[in-house]
Amino acid sequence: MARPSTLGELKQTVWASPERRRRTVHDEMRANLRARLAAGQPIFPGIVGYEDTVVPQIVNAVLSRHHLILLGLRGQAKTRIIRGLVELLDEEIPILAGSEVNDDPFHPLSKPGRLLVEERGDATPITWVPRSQRYIEKLATPDVTIADIIGDVDPIKAARGGHLLSDELTIHYGLLPRANRGIFAINELPDLAAKIQVGLFNIMQEGDVQIKGYPIRLQLDVALVFTANPEDYTARGKIITPLKDRIGSEVQTHYPRAVELGMAITAQEAWTTRDGLLVTVPDFVAELVERIAFEARTDKRIDRRSGVSQRLPISVLETVVSNAEQRALLTGERTTVARPSDVYASLPSITGKLELEYEGEQQGAEAVARDLVRRAAGAVFDERLGGANTDDIVHWFDEGGALKVADGQRAELLLQGFTLVPGLVDLVTGCGLAGKKDPASLVAGCELVLEGLAAHRRIARSDEIGYSRVRPERPGPGKSTPFA
Predict the structure, then answer these.
(1) Which residues contact 100 (CB under 8 A, 6 or more apart)?
(2) In 10 A of CB 346, how many CB atoms?
(3) Cβ(279)–Cβ(272) under 8 Å?
């Protein structure tokens, strides 16, 4: 059935019913959310780790027809969530053709819309707006003005139309009126100047706004959602209390609370599929990458108020895969396996995402990042091989053995060096880290064992010497086994 294209045709549809005419955006979102819940459909597809915490609170806010704010540190999917609210809108709605403020054909908001209906009557043209165009998002910055958000007088319109500046036809609508019958989102709300925050009072309480000196109040129908950092959203921060009081629901986001959830998010978001080359990432390498973020979030040298974004393990995993890809291209391999040593090649993806406290600044970002990798390797070692007997391996190094692993070498050659360490390869296969006939995975598993022992300071590790005894002496003839 063809969609109505005029007001007269629209009057013959369900859109003309009293229930539909009275329905607000909040009512629309509530009805669609209820349908999703009843059908067992996901509310925010692709959002992992919030199923039992954040999502139920957002559901309650929508069911309550509240304006809401998401409070959380960086990298906690706040923007993705508020953009996902668009899916709770109807697929499309009718508006007056050419309207800047999504005028309801039955109750035009703007003066141009009212004049059009008066002039054309049932022949008034109608157009349809999809849900994607009913969402407007603004990043709050100190230079945002009240004209940007609410609107201002447009002297060009006045000059071209021969109107007085006080005529409603000269209004230049801001982002908020243009979001009428939709969702208006502001990211980092506390960064708005106080006078701009005041400009949101009326729309949140009385449902209208006043533009500059025009003697009119626009009755907008809009759902407001905000995001903010908890540090700024306090009495000491940059949010004014009356605005906080008008926000119906305050939802706290959080980082993944389990390593497995973090790994699932990172695997979902990271770009690991490379053209023409198969790069396999063992689960223990993926866990090592994720644990770096978990270690960083509890490290006193790192600013907890700033947080450690989930983008950190995503970027690190992508760089790990890239380093493995580079190695494969240099050695001519068509397949390769990521190794713990690839994580050390990813330090630039870590250092830029850490806000250091004074102690961390004194040590340096790279030193802190290396320590995080070491601790993460130790945690993975404990998880995977915590009860394993590694005495023979440690004894070999205590007797003066040393191994220097070259990053760009083929797995088969590296494995020859690892087989010189008593019990190392057998431990890797016995614990299920790799199969006996898979040299690339065996090398990755051997590296994990050695990294774990180094993390617990049972052996030493350095870029110059490689793996050696804790207090290395110059190895005697036959004891050192460097390989390149």
Answers:
(1) 110, 112, 173, 177, 178
(2) 23
(3) yes
3-state SS record for 307-352: CCCCHHHHHHHHHHHHHHHHHHHHHCCCEEECCHHHHHCCCHHHHC
Residue 231 has φ and ψ, to the nearest 5°, of: -65, -35
439/483 Cα distance (integer angstroms)? 16
195, HSE (Cβ side, Cα atoms, 13 Å)? 7
pTM over 0.70: yes
Query: First-to-last CA distance in the chain?
Result: 72
Query: pLDDT tens for residues 36-52?
Result: 999 999 999 989 999 99
Torsion of CA 74, 76, 79, 85, to 10 degrees: -160
Question: What CATH number belongs to 7-252?
Answer: 3.40.50.300
Question: Coil, strand, or helix at residue 274?
Answer: strand
48 contacts: CB under 8 Å, gap ≥ 6: 256, 261, 264, 265, 268
Instruction: Kindly list the domain boundaries of the chain, sorted by start residue.
Output: 7-252, 259-468
Evaluate whether 209 touches 222 at the Cβ level (below 8 Å).
Answer: no
Looking only at the bridges linking them, the beta strands covering 171-173 and 151-153 are: antiparallel
Backbone phi and psi for residue 138, each to the nearest 5 degrees, phi listed first:
-130, 130
SS3 of 224, please? Answer: strand
How many Cα atoms within 13 Å fall on the side-chain side of residue 436? Answer: 2
Collect all residues with Cβ–Cβ distance below 8 Å to 242 and sequence separation of at least 6: 198, 201
341 touches 372 (CB < 8 A): no
Above 80 in pLDDT, residue 147?
Answer: yes
pLDDT digits (tens, 9 = 90+) for 110-144: 989 999 999 999 999 999 999 999 999 999 988 89
DSSP 155-178: HHHHHHHT--TTSGGGEEE-HHHH
8-state DSSP, 104: B
**What span, in angstroms and rounded, lies between the C-alpha atoms of 289 and 15?**
53
- SS3 for 60-89, per residue? HHHHCCCCEEEECCCCCCHHHHHHHHHHHC
d(CA 378, CA 473): 24
Rg of the chain, C-alpha, whole Å: 30
- For residue 348, what are its two tokens? 């630039």
Considering all CA atoms of the chain, what is the largest pairwise distance in Å, rounded to the nearest integer? 101
